[in-house]
Amino acid sequence: MAYLRTQVTSPKAQEAVLELGSDDGIKVWLNGQRVHSNNATRPCRPGEDKVRIKLKEGANTLLLKITQGGGEWSATARLVGVDGKPINVIVAPNG
């Protein structure tokens, strides 16, 4: 398994959609609360899972856990507005 962590800074409290892809299973926590889980065996396809989340104003910690059934692993994550359009946030590369 692999863990990926980053910090997302939002200028205001706002709803967003977290679009995820993973090879294989994935669990996601936002600010310590689990917001998504998919115990899948699949190749990574960006946006395959979509999760509606609520960002708080300021710093938000995003943690992904990727489980691996065999071979290589990978994951993708993208934040968009509930309308599917880009939103104004800053993602720290090293959280």
List keywords for this structure.
single chain, 95 residues, mainly beta, Jelly Rolls, five-stranded antiparallel sheet, three-stranded antiparallel sheet, 8 strands, globular
Q: Between the first and last Cα atoms, what is the distance in angstroms?
A: 19 Å
Question: Could you say which overall geometry the principal axes of the C-alpha atoms support?
Answer: globular
| β-strand amount | over 45%
Largest sheet: 5 strands, antiparallel
Total discrete domains:
1
CATH topology: Jelly Rolls
Q: Give the tally of β-strands.
A: 8
- Average of per-residue pLDDT values: 94
Oligomeric assembly: single chain
The main sheet orders its strands as 4-3-6-1-8
